[in-house]
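Sample entry (402 residues):
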Amino acid sequence: MLQHKKILLGVTGSIAAYKAALLVRLFVKAGAEVKVIMTDDAQDFITPLTLATLSKHPVQSNFVADYASGVWSNHVDLGLWADYFIIAPATGNTIAKMAHGQSDNLLTATYLSARCPVFVAPAMDLDMWAHPSTQANIATLTSYGNTIIDVEEGELASGLEGKGRMAEPEHIVAFLSNFEKKNIKSARFAGKKVLISAGPTREAIDPVRFISNHSTGRMGIELAEAFLQQGAQVTLVKGPTTLTADSAIQEVNVSSAQDMFEAVSSHFPTSDITIMAAAVGDYTPVETSATKIKKKDGNLTIELERTKDILKTISASKKGHQLLVGFALETNNELENAQRKLASKNLDLIVLNSLNDKGAGFKHNTNKVTLIDKHNNITNFELKSKEEVAYDILDAIHEMVD
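Predicted structure, serialized as tokens:
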């Protein structure tokens, strides 16, 4: 996503400045052109020669580049050149200057001249980060339209543990790539009606107890928000979960598998794209007690019956223009089971993930998926954030409806 993009990297006087070398390298590897501005203090932590070598551009740090010839560094031209301006690491001092319009060095002067999106990746000790003045400055920068790449948690240079570490270079590159992806494809699904199910279902045993699963609904919500950002009109049928979606998404809250069946069936006829990302319960108690079942001696047996197969039911009435996507969470014979589900339920695409893959499935902010389309084309992806996975799925869907 960063191919041919012009990235201006500002490096300030933090121990995290050493990470700028890897950041430049990753941007160049992604196909971007990179220029670097350093503050004087940043040069105590990493040399300009290192960053110049990696970026293949001279590093600039002073308003006057050569006193003898009168060559000067034009901060206005630098600000206009860039597609993106990223300050990483951004110290508390530089953040304060940016928030209050001070321009006593080339970096902050360029910041005031930049017309492109500006990203700030702070780096400081946990108490400095938590200080009210720092947080007020961060809020001010956000109010100016700048984007903060949040600090990460871990061991700090002081030896303390907590929030304050600059985001890892690969996380910054991924953040910017996602930003670019959203901007480029902001209207890909304009005019499309998208129906998405998310979260678990709860099958009541009595007023106190229920049968459910570990789904949080995060994957479905990420999909819903990605479609919204790309112009779609989104309806989200969501099972019980603490997670919330963007208020612009039409949300239908349900509890049981039957509730979800009725809600999805109601909205399916008018949808262009339907994605069943919910973890719907396959079985429900034959009888639900109206009062709490009291504990007794011996075992308790609960008879279960099959719930309605939502995907199979709606796929039987699928029209030619409609696209239907399912999910398959497997623990064994993953590919074979997913391919069987793809065929038996007349799907256009199925998203396979396995609980055997570390970091995938329930309770994680990451997922590792394989996409299989109706022509049995198989695409494997590495472990990614669920937001990134959502965009991979959208890319595949866009190719099918384009």
